[in-house]
Amino acid sequence: MKKVVILIVFCCIMFSISGCSVKKTEKLTDAEKFANEYSISEENPFQYVTTDEVLELVKSKSGILFLGDSDSEWSSFGVEILNKVVNEMKIDKVYYFNPNKLKNKEDNDYEQVIDLLQLEEDSSLPIVYVYEKGKIIDQVDYPVHDDSSINDDFKKQLEDEYLDLLSLYL
To answer: Can you name the residues that pair with 138 across neighbouring β-strands?
Structure first.
């Protein structure tokens, strides 16, 4: 009998612990999820979008689209600088899409996104687009980074490129 009571108490504790963590995950905002994914401040303007939403946004709206992959140190580096720039410029929304999560899936919308954004198989992430009323105005592709080292000059160069790009949006 004692073992049954201990088992029931253990199961109740485990159920309540797992239930709490699920609720917390469900309540996270995009900014909080993005902060966790990229290890940046929760004070960020990033909003996740699907392939359908990317198509709708770039074809008919105006805004900023960030393509990145949190598994890439270069995307993480780019996000750090981009987040600094958008916060300084008081930009309240940057859409985020990770094309690598869908790369190997057969998805017609994904293929349309690739065509619309003119991505190549060997495109390096991150890439930041500014688009207006269905037309891509400009973009900053991450420089070829096979031999690049992250130093202050390189950070400043990327920051300046982002400032110039985002000025087109404002």
So the answer is: 130
